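Support request, priority: normal
Reporter: lab tech (M.K.)
Component: structure prediction queue

Hi team, I submitted a job for Phosphate transport system permease protein from Leifsonia tongyongensis yesterday, and the status page still shows it as pending. I've pasted the exact input below so you can check whether something in the sequence is tripping the parser. The sequence length should be 313 residues. Please let me know if I need to resubmit or if it's stuck on your end.
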Amino acid sequence: MTTGTAGAIRAKVRLGDRVFSTSTVVAGSLILATLAAVAIFLIIQSIPAITAPTGTLPNNASNFWVYVWPLVFGTVWAALLALIVATPLSIGIALFISHYAPRRVAQTLGYIIDLLAAVPSVVYGLWGIAALATFVQPFYVWLGTYFGWFPLFAPPVSGTGRTILTAALVLAVMVIPIMTAICREVFLQTPRLHEEAALALGATRWEMVRIAVLPFARSGIISAIMLGLGRALGETLAIAMVLSPAIIVKFAVLQAQSPNTIAANIALQFPEATGVGVNALIASGLVLFIVTLLINMLARYIVNRRKAFSGAN
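Reply from support: The job had stalled in the queue. We restarted it manually and it finished. Here are the results:
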């Protein structure tokens, strides 16, 4: 009686499969190695600034954390203001393209939105200075006159319009194409049966969107918001061109002196920095790196938590 083979018969591994699998492993490892190398470089170069004695840091800061805190505040504050403006607009535009606009209009509008993502940030900065700041300044005066009692709109109002709110509006325009593109693709992936079932039960177009599309796309919307937040946190040129920055911490959005951001501060100060000043700028970049990493980790956690309730399964 013939005995069975010693082991299972293995399929012949082709050269193309081996090369492809090896390439993917190398590519994934290269990303991790690059990220680790950047983190190690930032940490090593940041140590002199973090341990610097009193009086040696820029702006006569007593220690590094006193120096970097206003920059962290300005970075997060500008990004949050931008998201407050961009999120409803992005979701509305994406819904219009995916569920309301005629096919030809949707294709044209989608192409224009994608084209906006390719505009350089310096162009947005020039637009913010030359057009947007001048256009919104009378509106800022009106806000300061009638709503100055509210802390966000406290006077004195900037005479040029170059405020943290203007910078946030520029950031909002910059992140809208990215957020809209992601939301649009997620909305288009909603199962057709879910939409038709809602309409068959007598739901209006908006009710169908509310009970079928938005719950399904919840995790994708969160991903789009977090991606837009990461884009806003790291923006440099547009903020540096629009803001009249100061090392301060305040929530007023209409005043001339506005909190600066980490990226803009590095771009403006690095050419003239020397000694510990260079290390302080690199250390502030490390803080921005950590903040961005934490936000991405939070986004991943939220998306994984909500995935089971999105309807995707």
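The radius of gyration is 25 Å. The CA atoms of residues 135 and 177 lie 22 Å apart. Let us know if anything else looks off. Ticket resolved.
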